[in-house]
Structure formats: structure tokens, C-alpha cells
């Protein structure tokens, strides 16, 4: 998480100061009260010095930013609190939201190549763990929310790329993600589909059984219906698992493993979308994410 001015990082070194910055970033262009900040940072029992500490951190943030750019005054005092004023192209989260929203619209229109490109561009903004280096009560729930959002977008992208016949190229990437997130059945089933379409049926079944075994041994759980049904379909060599050779970049059948079994066809509805101008003096991030990332 951090700020850059003219391509150079702004020093925000203290965990609490980073937490104040992170909360303002999550609520960019909204007035945030001192009480709201205190509750986010210390929970239900803030110290008696909470107001003074927050004012001190705001002063320090302003000073650090102005040392990097004397004309910068992004943190504005308003009646009732503070406002971090940013344009859409200055905040990675805003750019990420615009790109992912546009990607999904393009996918629904059947413009799948463009949808993949936009989603890849959005996911490339992430670097490391969200809200890294911040210490406050809101940080862990916020981090989990942002990480879940990123993974949902990643699974959507990988499902779309599978529908475009990129199973050979995706195996290494999916193998890495399954190792990193072994409990996410969507990623596991997407790897199974990629392996199966490459003629590696036994390896696809091994990935399924490893997932089932891990769930049973570590959590005492049975696999979900998606994993069970896909394993059976692979055993039967169900024709629905095969890639639709009629699929084209602008009118392919969308196979989203994890949303439904292969063979599901996405409904396409017309939409219009525009992309934002991407020039900016400042880059603000909610993680060690981006070019110097996510909810607000």
C-alpha cells in the first residue's frame, strides 16, 4: 500500500499512519469523520487520545505528500472530518473497478478476446497482499474482502480463457494457483478441465482426488457438487467437456468452471462501456499492489 508522486514513492512508514491512509483510500472522495477513523483503527474501545493521534497522523501524511510535491493537497479538512480527493485515474482501485466492470460487459456482449485483455490488465495492477503494512481493526476484514474480489475476477478470467481454447497455455498458471489456494474448487476444476482437454485424463482425476483427500483429512468435509460432478464427467469422458470448436472470439460459448459445468452457455446481452483516461500525476494503492489497490 502506498502513494507515488511523479513516479517516486512517498514515505509512509508507520503502521498506524498507513492504516489511516488505507482507510481514506477505501473511502476516497467521501468525508470521513474522526470518530469513524477511530472506530476503524481501534474498534469499540479507542484510547482517550484517539482524536489527537489521528490529527497527528493526518498532519504527517500531508507533510510527506507535500515533500514529494509542494502543490499537492489531496487530504482536505471538511466540516465533520477529512476527505481524500482523488480522480478516477489516480486510485488503482478505481482503475481496477472500471477495467473489471468493462471486461465483464465485453464478455456478456461476446467480445471475449477483449474481455480477457481488459481483465488481465486489471489483475496486473495487483502487487502483493492488500493493505500491506497497515495495522488496525479494519485491516484484516478489508484485506480478505479485497483478496476474495481479486480471486473471483481471476476465476472468471480463467474460465473465459478456457472457453477460447487456451487450455495448453493455462495449465502452468492454474497449477500454481491451485497450489496457492487449494480449497478453491473453481480453480481446481478449471485445472481439471485444462488437463482433460490436453488429453491428460489421469492427471485431471488425480487433481480431483487430491482435493477430495485434502478436504477429508484436514477439514472433515466432502467435496462440493461441482468437483464431484466434474470428476464423474471426466470418468465418463462426457462430450460436454470438449471445447466447442465453433467458438469464435466474438461469439464463443463461455465455459466458467465453478459457475456451472462445461457446456453451460452464457447469455449475452448488449451493453456499452467506456474506458477511462489513464494519465495521472499520483498513483495511490491499497496494497503493495500496483504501480504505486480496493473497495471504494
The radius of gyration over CA amounts to 22 Å
Number of alpha- plus pi-helical segments: 10
Structural class: mainly alpha
Poorly predicted spans: 246-296
Describe the structure.
With 296 residues, this protein is mainly α. 51% of the residues lie in helices and 7% in strands. It contains 10 helices and 6 strands; from the N terminus they run E-E-H-E-H-H-E-E-H-H-H-H-H-H-H-E. It has helices at residues 15-26, 34-42, 50-68, 92-108, 112-123, 139-163, 167-180, 185-197, 201-219, 225-236, and strands at 2-5, 8-10, 31-32, 75-78, 81-84, 282-285. The strands form 2 sheets. Strands 2-1-6 form a 3-stranded antiparallel sheet, with helices on one face. Strands 3-5-4 form a 3-stranded antiparallel sheet. Strand 4 (75-78) and strand 5 form a beta hairpin. The protein starts with a strand and ends in an 11-residue tail after the last strand. The model is unreliable at 246-296 (pLDDT under 50).
What attributes does this structure have?
disordered C terminus, 10 helices, mainly alpha, 7% strand, 3-stranded antiparallel sheet, 296 residues, 6 strands
Quick recap of the structure?
With 296 residues, this protein is mainly alpha-helical. The strands form two sheets. It has a three-stranded antiparallel sheet with strand order 2-1-6, with helices on one face. The C terminus is likely disordered.
Amino acid at each position: 500500500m502506498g502513494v507515488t508522486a511523479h513516479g517516486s514513492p512517498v514515505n509512509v512508514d508507520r503502521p498506524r499512519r498507513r492504516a489511516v491512509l488505507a482507510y481514506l483510500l477505501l473511502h476516497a472522495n467521501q468525508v470521513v469523520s474522526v470518530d469513524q477513523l477511530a472506530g476503524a483503527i481501534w474498534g469499540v474501545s479507542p484510547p482517550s487520545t484517539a482524536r489527537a493521534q489521528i490529527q497527528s497522523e493526518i498532519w504527517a501524511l500531508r507533510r510527506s505528500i507535500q515533500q514529494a510535491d509542494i502543490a499537492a493537497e489531496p487530504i482536505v479538512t471538511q466540516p465533520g472530518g477529512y476527505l481524500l480527493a482523488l480522480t478516477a485515474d489516480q486510485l488503482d482501485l478505481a482503475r481496477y473497478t472500471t477495467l473489471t466492470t468493462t471486461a465483464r460487459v465485453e464478455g456478456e456482449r461476446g467480445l471475449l478476446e477483449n474481455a480477457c485483455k481488459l481483465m488481465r490488465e486489471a489483475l496486473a495492477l495487483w502487487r502483493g497482499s492488500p493493505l500491506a503494512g497497515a495495522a488496525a481493526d479494519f485491516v484484516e476484514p478489508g484485506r480478505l474482502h479485497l483478496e476474495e474480489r481479486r480471486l473471483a475476477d481471476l476465476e472468471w478470467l480463467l474460465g473465459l480463457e478456457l472457453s477460447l481454447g487456451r487450455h495448453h497455455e493455462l495449465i502452468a498458471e492454474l497449477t500454481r494457483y491451485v497450489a496457492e489456494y487449494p480449497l478453491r474448487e473453481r480453480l481446481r476444476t478449471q485445472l481439471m478441465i485444462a488437463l482433460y482437454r490436453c488429453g491428460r485424463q489421469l492427471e485431471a482425476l488425480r487433481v480431483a482426488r487430491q482435493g477430495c483427500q485434502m478436504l477429508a483429512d484436514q477439514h472433515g468435509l466432502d467435496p462440493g457438487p461441482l468437483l464431484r460432478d466434474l470428476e464423474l464427467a471426466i470418468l465418463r469422458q462426457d462430450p460436454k467437456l470438449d471445447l466447442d470448436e465453433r467458438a469464435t472470439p466474438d461469439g464463443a460459448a463461455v465455459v466458467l468452471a465453478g459457475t456451472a459445468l462445461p457446456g453451460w452457455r452464457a447469455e449475452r446481452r448488449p451493453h456499452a462501456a467506456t474506458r477511462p483516461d489513464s494519465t495521472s500525476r499520483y498513483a495511490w494503492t491499497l496494497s503493495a499492489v500496483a504501480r504505486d489497490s480496493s473497495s471504494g
